[in-house]
Hints:
CATH architecture of the largest domain: 3-Layer(bba) Sandwich
Radius of gyration: 21 Å
Distance between the termini: 56 Å
Shape: globular
Helix content: 10-25%
CATH class of the largest domain: Alpha Beta
Strand order of the largest sheet: 5-2-1-9-20
Number of domains: 3
Amino acid sequence: MRHLLILGGGTAGTIMANKLAAALDEREWTITIVDGTEEHYYQPGLLFVPFGIYRIHEIVKPRRQYLPGRVKFVLAGIEAIDPAKKTVTLSGGEALRYDLLIVATGSDIHPEQIEGLKDEEWGKSKFDFYTPKGAERLGQFLKGWQGGKLVLNIAEMPIKCPVAPLEFLFLADEYFTERGMRDKVDIHLVTPLDGAFTRPISSQILGEFLERKGIHVTPDFGLARVDSQEKKLVAWDDTEVSYDLLVSIPTNMGDACIARSGMGNELNFIPTDKQTLKAEGLEDVFVLGDATNLPSSKAGSVAHFQSEILFENIMEHIEGRAPRAHFDGHSNCFIESGFGKGLLIDFNYETEPLPGEFPLPGLGPFKLLQESPINHYGKMMFRWVYWNLLLRGMELPIQAEMSMAGKQVRA
């Protein structure tokens, strides 16, 4: 009997558990998945909690509900991985042996990495929305806030769902407009990027959206520390930005077990072959989702597309053949832009987000880098798709490899 071990029961790990449970002979393989919590959150939904669009209980379900019966779920923290011995030690001391390991331990925010960020004002005038507690506390604060200068700051890249900060700003513009107090709120984006987004064309288009909504952008801001008493951000070059309300996207890091295992980079992300998803320099270890160090977005759509590639490569690996399927960095993200509209971007390692139609040229129905109600509906309907199709490893009508069909290539 051979043992497949999956570390992490989030989006990536759950998809792989479902795909491989259906494909591997139960008489030859055991499948075990390890996670430290029982709750599975629909993470894109956290964005909507501060504005009262979703409540936390609407975006959380039990992990076990989405795992096949043959998959053993172990509720435990992970102490360390030993690739040489092919074992994983759990927080209670138990050691699990594996023949094949999939690391999908994700990433989390670490406000303690920024001087002055997580202090007595954390949760009072400084908030996050990337965690359930943070999103709820920010929502409670906004209900009674009378206005002032709202600063959303991205501390450093990479972050989970790179479009989420922009979506927050667009939804904040709508929220304060509908409350009749938009003129009392000065909204700012303070970012280490040189513009609104990571790629030139989309950065320009999204920057224009921010400008039209009266949202100011401070680019190239390398955050050094936060001064809670003076309520200001201080950059490494001593540039300062004041705030009344700070919405922070702190440093994102991989799981601490990666550091304890000596497997990751300085942010605990595992060096991973960008095409095959095999852990570099390690035998029988594959990585996907936010746990990788790949130059692709840390987003659910990427975990989905990676899972299609990884499934093929694991089946090849089991049969003793070199992995042949190649991940191209495909990412596909709806961007909620407020007032019942949204945008959509579709890109990969080589091709930046471009305008056009998706998935069919001239037909859409979705618009790329253009506002439309159908994009908003696509964003809101995806919660159902996530719980009922995506997590269960079912085939979706979007290919893992990005298509150029419908995209307007600029000269």
